[in-house]
Specification:
Layout: E1 8-13, H1 17-33, E2 38-44, E3 62-70, H2 76-90, E4 95-98, H3 110-119, E5 125-130, H4 137-154, E6 160-167, H5 168-174, H6 184-190, E7 195-200, H7 214-226, H8 229-256, H9 263-289, H10 297-300, E8 305-313
Parallel strand pairs: 1-2, 1-4, 2-3, 5-7
Antiparallel strand pairs: 3-8, 4-6, 5-6
Helix pairs in contact: 8-9
Length: about 325
């Protein structure tokens, strides 16, 4: 890493304090085994349970642990966006490594991300690409469905998530991307920032229950798709126009052949015309949104930061 400052390991947390304590110990051990050092940057996403003592044992590789408390719960993706912006503005890190605070991002993969970032001369964001997932079968099936819908909506696949490392050179660009406010990985892809991947299996959480319920999961998926709302609107419009053309062509052929047009076909044509008009209206909304003020993490993050506490090492 460049010598701008220490590597920051960013972990958003909402009430997952027991898992976080284990995560800090495991990350410290993984870094120490490789002779690496870093600082921990915990983003408390408006937790409503007390954290207690976060660090209870002496740390070897983590030279500081900071907790940035947000004024309210904003959600996982927005906590990450604020954490990235805070680190860029106040800590001048050599890089920021983003990982979940519950242990599902394996600490043993942290040195691998760092190594890959170095191999890319600190000029690319490096994501962990999920080679194998550890969730229950229901979640895995829903995730496969989500990937299919995402591909249909955007024309691109998705295999990356939050687990990543952002070198300093890229960090100054990432925090100016409005789309990371809704979805971090989707925003990076939307901004066409250079990135690479390593394969990493999804691990199991260290303690407690996941805060991700079905509603939150659906909203997370829709947030990723919303980053590409312009592509989605064009694809929907083309689909509606093609279906309408086919329906009108079928009706024209039936009239030419002297056949009766089924009532359901007339209703289908009317519905397609209405859907096409709605899709065009959606497109105009997307275009109009380009001229409205957007949340820029680099500029606006401080509105949500309540306080910052150093709970181990540091100053």
């Amino acid at each position: 890493m460049r010598e701008d400052g220490p590597l920051q390991i960013l972990a958003p947390v909402f009430n997952d304090w027991p898992a976080l304590r284990i995560l800090i110990e495991r990350v410290d051990g993984a870094l120490s085994d490789q002779g690496l050092t870093a600082e921990m940057l915990v983003i408390d996403d408006g937790s409503n349970t007390p954290s207690g003592e976060i660090v209870s044992k002496p740390l070897r590789a983590l030279t500081a642990v900071r907790v940035v408390s947000l004024r309210r719960n904003l959600g996982h993706q927005r906590a990450i966006a604020i954490g990235l912006a805070y680190a860029e503005a106040n800590l001048q890190p050599s890089a920021v490594l983003v990982m979940d605070g519950d242990g599902e991002d394996d600490p043993s993969d942290v040195p691998r991300l760092i190594e890959k970032c170095r191999a890319e001369s600190n000029r690319k964001i490096v994501f962990a690409r999920r080679a194998k997932r550890s969730e229950r079968i229901g979640f895995r099936l829903f995730y496969r469905l989500y990937r299919g819908v995402y591909w249909l909506a955007t024309g691109t696949g998705v295999r990356i998530g939050n687990f990543s490392i952002v070198p300093r050179l890229m960090l100054t660009r990432v925090v100016s991307v409005p789309e990371i406010w809704n979805h971090y990985a989707g925003g990076v892809l939307k901004a066409k920032l250079p990135y690479d991947t390593i394969d990493a299996d999804r691990a199991k959480r260290f303690a407690g229950q996941s805060q991700m319920n079905f509603v939150a999961l659906v909203m997370h998926g829709l947030s990723a798709i919303s980053v590409n709302s312009d592509v989605l609107s064009v694809r929907l419009l083309l689909l509606m126009l093609c279906l309408t053309a086919v329906a009108l062509g079928g009706s024209g052929w039936a009239i030419f052949a002297g056949l009766l047009i089924p009532r359901w076909l007339v209703l289908a044509i009317g519905l397609l015309v209405v859907l096409t008009a709605m899709t065009m209206f959606f497109m105009f909304l997307v275009l109009a949104a380009r001229s409205t003020a957007q949340f820029i993490p680099q500029r606006d993050y401080h509105d949500f930061v309540q306080n910052v506490a150093v709970v181990a090492g540091g100053r």
